[in-house]
Amino acid sequence: MTAPRTDARNDVRPDTDTIRRLPKAVLHDHLDGGLRPATLVELAGAVGHTLPTTDPDALAAWYYEAANSGDLVRYIATFEHTLAVMQTREGLLRTAEEYVLDLAADGVVYGEVRYAPELMLNGGLTLPEVVETVQEGLAAGMAKGAAAGTPVRVGTLLCGMRMFDRSREIADLAVAFRDAGVVGFDIAGAEDGFPPADHLDAFAHLRAENVPFTIHAGEAHGLPSIHQALQVCGAQRIGHGVRITDDIVDGKLGRVAEWIRDRRIALEMCPTSNLQTGAATSIADHPITRLRDLGFRVTLNTDNRLVSGTTMTREMSLLVEKAGWTLGDLRTVTVNALKSAFIPFDERNALIRDVVLPGYDLGTR
């Protein structure tokens, strides 16, 4: 569906203003990692939670500094503050609605948002009430986006936490809400020491119910984590997956890398986040460019927009500036994301045909 790379349009190096207008798709983005700083300050005050600072700009800077520690564990620890304000109906409704509006303002036309309902129960909500409330907020955001002329479709991934034992419950939730906006499942949290195979019961249930799932793998742990996610658990996509390069030597693909490329298993890559957690050394040398050139189905994502201080426009701009990406490359990863989205084929196809490809044609004018 994409134009061949020999097309002259593919060689355009778009500027930031052009990139901001391009239609985008994001598959890997955490709801609790993308709050507006001002909203976090306001909601924290309402529930009596103490933040590192109550100045929104200073708070955003605090998050960015913590995220740049190079330590995945410290990176994850910053979520203490966002989760503290996402324990009530009011907090969940607002953060979900604003999440969608922020995507729309960034030119995103399709997004998948993920979060762990089990981490949002301290205010007395039940697991189903958490999901219902988030879906209500997302629906409100989509309605406002459409009314403003910036429509965006958002699907939800429910996350089980890999260090806890509630993943089967969360898988049951994903099945129960599959016709109410939940499009899939994931496991999240500290990767090293918490293998995906610990949650085989959840994955077997999801496969039996035909619910797709992705697994965080190959970020803080290496090739065995990716292999287990694919061959033991049956993941349809891989979250991050940067360590797949351990299976590529002098351009020759090992068995796992070959399996991923040949079966078009999408890699949900997050350059800024990977750099901050130590999974990559620089944007210029991030594996996404090498893997793109080797024919992998790479997708571009934000991971956590507040924590990483980023947007899809920023991620795209960094690859253009630091890694020599072109308009054609940006279109390719956008189409890749939609091809691998957890929504029906005809809906994916319509977004590619009617929204993305025309939008990238306009980017050359």
UniProtKB/TrEMBL annotation:
Sorted alphabetically, the Gene Ontology BP terms of this entry are: adenosine catabolic process; hypoxanthine salvage; inosine biosynthetic process; nucleotide metabolic process; purine ribonucleoside monophosphate biosynthetic process
Which residues participate in Zn(2+) binding? 28, 30, 216, 303
EC class name: hydrolase
Question: Which residue numbers mark the site Important for catalytic activity?
Answer: 240
> Which parts of the sequence belong to the Adenosine deaminase domain?
23-355
Q: Which GO terms describe its cellular component?
A: cytosol
List of residues binding substrate:
30, 32, 189
**What's a Pfam family in this record?**
A_deaminase
Which keywords has UniProt assigned to this entry? Hydrolase, Metal-binding, Nucleotide metabolism, Zinc
Q: Which GO terms describe its molecular function?
A: 2'-deoxyadenosine deaminase activity; adenosine deaminase activity; zinc ion binding
The record's section on InterPro entries has: A_deaminase, A_deaminase_dom, Ado/ade_deaminase, Metal_Hydrolase
The coiled-coil segments of this chain are none
Necessary cofactors: Zn(2+)
The active site is formed by 219
As its record notes, the protein acts as a catalyst of: adenosine + H2O + H(+) = inosine + NH4(+); 2'-deoxyadenosine + H2O + H(+) = 2'-deoxyinosine + NH4(+)
The protein's Enzyme Commission number = 3.5.4.4
How the cofactor binds, per note?
A: Binds 1 zinc ion per subunit.
Q: Which Gene3D superfamilies does the UniProt entry name for this protein?
A: Metal-dependent hydrolases
UniProt xrefs under HAMAP family: A_deaminase
Q: Which family does it belong to?
A: Belongs to the metallo-dependent hydrolases superfamily. Adenosine and AMP deaminases family. Adenosine deaminase subfamily.
NCBIfam families in UniProt: aden_deam (TIGR01430), PRK09358.1-2 (NF006847)
User: What is the protein's known function?
Assistant: Catalyzes the hydrolytic deamination of adenosine and 2-deoxyadenosine.
User: What name is this protein filed under?
Assistant: Adenosine deaminase
